[in-house]
C-alpha cells in the first residue's frame, strides 16, 4: 500500500493559498513520501522556506492593488492616506497664510526692517531741522498758512528720500564693517540682500530728485543735489572717494550737509520760493548755522567712538582710532559745552524778553544735563558709549526746538 501511494505521487504537488496580500504556492509533501525520502535534509527544507518567502514578497510587490477577494491592499490604503494628509496639510497652510494675525505680523516685521535700514535717528534729525529752519522764515502769524505747510511738507519729504539714499548707500559699502560694528542692520544681518539694498537706494534717490524737480524750487533742488554729491563721496568705494576713511574729510561732509545746506538752503526755499521774499540772512539764521556747525562736528567725531573695533580691522582712520576713544569723547563734550556757552551769550543779548529767558534757561539746562550724563559713561562697555551717542542726537533734536524761539 505504501509503495502504491508513493508511486501515485512521484513528485511533491502544490496548491494555492489565498491571502489579502496576493498569492503564493506552497509545496505539500505527503507524510508518507517524507518517510521514504530520508535524503531531504533539514537544511534543504529551510532553503525552500526562504525561497517561498522571497517569492511571496515579489508577488506582493508585483500586485500592489489586487487581493484574492478583491480587498484593498496596504499600499493602496497608504496611498489614499498620504493624499488625504497632503490635502489637509495644504489646506492648513493656506489657512495659516490667510490668517489676519500672520499677515499683520509679516507687515510689522517688514516695517521694522525698513525702520532700521533708514537709520531713524537721522530721519528724525532731518525732519526736525527742516521744520525748525522753516519757522525762522515766519515773520507774522498770517505766514502760518496752508502755503507754509505745503512748502514744508515738500521739503521734508524730498529731504527724507535723500536721507534714506545716503544712509542706505553707506550700508551697502559697509556691510562687512557693520557685521562687526552694527550687526543689527538689515544688510549686515542678512534680512536684506545686497540686490534689495541697491533697489531701495536707487529708488529713493530717483524719487527725491523727481520731487525736487516737480516742486520747482531751486534752493530745494540744490540742497538735494549737494547732499547727493557729498553723501556719495562719503561712502562710495572708488579712487579719490570714500571720504569716510579720512577723518577731516568725513567731518567736513557731515558739517556741510547738517550745518550749512540744511540751514541755508531750506530757509531760502521758504523765504524765496514759498513767500516770494528777497533772500536775507537774519540773526537767528546766522546763530543756527554757527551752532549747528559745532554740533555737526561733534556728531561726525562721536559717531566713530562706538565703532572703533570695526574701523581698526578695515583701516578706517577715524579720530577715535588715531587718538583713542576717551580723548575724542571729552573733545566732543567740550565742544558742545562751548556751543552752549555761546548760546547763553546770544540769548542774553536778545532784545526780546521772552526769547532771552527761553534761550538762556533752555541752553543752561541742556549744558547741565550733558555734563552730568558724560561723567557716568563707562568706556569699557560699548553699549554705554552708544547710549550716550543717542543722547547727543536727543540734544540735537532739542536744539532745533529752541532755534525758532531765538529772536
TrEMBL record:
GO cellular component terms given for this protein: chloroplast membrane
Superkingdom of the source species: Eukaryota
Alphabetic keyword roster: Chloroplast, Membrane, Plastid, Transferase, Transit peptide, Transmembrane, Transmembrane helix
Keyword hit for Metal-binding: no
Transmembrane segments: 123-141, 147-173, 194-213, 219-236, 248-268, 280-302, 328-347, 353-374, 386-406
Membrane topology: Multi-pass membrane protein
InterPro entries referenced in this protein's UniProt entry, alphabetically: AtHST-like, UbiA_prenyltransferase, UbiA_sf
Pfam families: UbiA
GO molecular function (one): prenyltransferase activity
Subcellular location: Plastid, Chloroplast membrane
Family, as annotated: Belongs to the UbiA prenyltransferase family.
Protein name listed in UniProt: Homogentisate phytyltransferase
Biological classification of the source: Eukaryota, Viridiplantae, Streptophyta, Embryophyta, Tracheophyta
Amino acid at each position: 500500500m505504501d509503495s502504491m501511494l508513493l508511486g501515485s505521487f512521484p513528485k511533491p504537488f502544490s496548491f494555492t493559498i489565498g491571502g489579502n496580500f496576493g498569492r503564493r504556492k506552497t509545496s505539500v509533501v505527503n507524510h508518507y513520501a517524507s518517510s521514504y525520502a530520508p535524503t531531504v535534509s533539514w537544511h534543504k527544507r529551510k532553503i525552500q522556506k526562504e525561497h517561498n518567502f522571497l517569492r511571496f514578497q515579489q508577488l506582493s510587490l508585483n500586485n500592489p492593488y489586487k487581493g484574492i477577494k478583491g480587498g484593498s491592499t496596504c499600499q493602496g490604503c497608504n496611498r489614499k492616506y498620504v493624499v488625504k494628509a497632503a490635502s489637509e496639510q495644504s489646506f492648513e497652510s493656506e489657512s495659516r497664510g490667510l490668517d489676519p494675525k500672520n499677515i499683520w505680523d509679516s507687515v510689522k516685521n517688514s516695517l521694522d526692517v525698513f525702520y532700521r535700514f533708514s537709520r531713524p535717528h537721522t530721519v528724525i534729525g532731518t525732519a526736525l531741522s527742516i521744520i525748525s529752519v522753516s519757522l525762522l522764515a515766519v515773520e507774522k502769524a498770517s505766514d502760518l498758512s496752508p502755503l507754509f505747510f505745503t512748502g514744508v511738507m515738500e521739503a521734508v519729504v524730498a529731504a527724507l528720500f535723500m536721507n534714506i539714499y545716503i544712509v542706505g548707500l553707506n550700508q551697502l559699502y559697509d556691510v562687512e564693517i557693520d557685521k562687526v560694528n552694527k550687526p543689527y542692520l538689515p544688510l549686515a544681518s542678512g534680512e536684506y540682500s545686497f540686490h534689495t539694498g541697491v533697489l531701495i537706494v536707487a529708488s529713493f534717490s530717483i524719487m527725491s530728485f523727481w520731487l525736487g524737480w516737480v516742486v520747482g524750487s531751486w534752493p530745494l533742488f540744490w540742497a538735494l543735489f549737494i547732499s547727493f554729491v557729498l553723501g556719495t563721496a562719503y561712502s562710495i568705494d572708488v579712487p579719490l572717494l570714500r571720504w569716510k576713511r579720512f577723518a577731516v574729510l568725513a567731518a567736513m561732509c557731515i558739517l556741510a550737509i547738517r550745518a550749512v545746506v540744511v540751514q541755508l538752503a531750506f530757509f531760502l526755499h521758504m523765504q524765496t520760493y514759498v513767500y516770494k521774499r528777497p533772500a536775507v540772512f537774519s540773526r537767528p539764521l546766522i546763530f543756527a548755522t554757527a551752532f549747528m556747525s559745532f554740533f555737526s562736528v561733534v556728531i561726525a567725531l562721536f559717531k566713530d567712538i562706538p565703532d572703533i573695533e570695526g574701523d581698526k580691522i578695515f583701516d578706517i582712520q577715524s579720530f577715535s582710532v588715531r587718538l583713542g576713544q576717551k580723548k575724542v569723547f571729552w573733545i566732543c563734550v567740550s565742544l558742545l559745552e562751548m556751543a552752549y556757552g555761546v548760546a547763553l551769550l546770544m540769548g542774553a543779548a536778545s532784545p526780546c524778553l521772552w526769547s532771552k529767558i527761553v534761550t538762556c534757561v533752555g541752553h543752561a539746562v541742556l549744558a547741565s544735563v550733558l555734563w552730568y550724563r558724560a561723567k557716568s559713561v563707562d568706556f569699557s562697555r560699548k553699549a554705554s558709549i552708544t547710549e550716550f551717542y543717542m543722547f547727543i542726537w536727543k540734544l540735537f533734536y532739542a536744539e532745533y526746538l529752541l532755534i525758532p524761539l531765538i529772536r
